[in-house]
Amino acid sequence: MTTTLDWYGCATFGLRTAGMHILLDAYVDRAATAAGPGLRAEDITDCDWIVIGHAHFDHLYGAERIAPATGARIVAGYESVRLLEALGVPLEQMVPVAGGETVDLGNGCRVTAYPSQHSCVWSHGQMPQAGEVCLGDLGVTWQEQQTRMQALTRHLATALDPVAGEHLQAALAGHSDRGDGGALLFLFELPDGSLLFQDTSGHWSGVLAHLRPDVAILAAAGRGNVDGEPVQGTLADFVARQAELLGAPRILLSHHDDWLPGFSVDTDLVPVRAALARRCPEVELLEPGYCAGTVLFG
């Protein structure tokens, strides 16, 4: 049995294993000016499960069309489930999780949810590059973070080109402004190996240190979040520290393409490769393009 992974852009992947197609996040649609494979949610015609890391539009948008069209069941946090139910996805088609639950996906596959952290998106107006040193912003209260997020929202309303702006408005339609809803990590136990899925640059160190996946998908975008505080240093070092904590022999990256021009950046992977070589030179970094059908194990 061979497990393969297709990257659809941003943090969305198509996992094919044990005769099933499992979507990791559901953000397939893109603005015409953005990087991506040129697919839309309507192009996903076979899907058994959708596993969603958190409730932001660039992870959730599309699930409200894919699940009803394909019959796929959704595993997601409670805020994501609330939003999708409001958008017409039947509640009985969804499995809400908060961390600690193991879901039997069938055909010898299971997935366990773990509590995680979202990147410190409130700390910047545009995503920093992987080698950029970011310092400060420690001890910022929830109220101040909300004020900064409101400023970011106003910034995006004027910073994006009309094509990206129109796409953003469409993606936000029907979704709330209640935040990420609580980011989650997922560890898949598959017939031929284990896979960790992370869709935003944050973690609880105590959680990550006890997981030992064969392959890990790690987010490489924005300001890293370590145990509730913004990383002091670079995104590249943040990714390498995560790889070191996990001890996974192979890693792939997520969220690192220019998925929303005007806000996102095409992440420079040179600093990431250098940081990995320093901290965990035994780790293999896989760098597939879109829809590459990467073989994960063996």
UniProtKB/TrEMBL annotation:
InterPro entries: Metallo-B-lactamas (IPR001279), UPF0173_UPF0282_UlaG_hydrolase (IPR050114). It comes from the Bacteria. Coiled coil: none annotated. Residues 9-167 form the Metallo-beta-lactamase domain. SMART domains: Lactamase_B. This is MBL fold metallo-hydrolase.
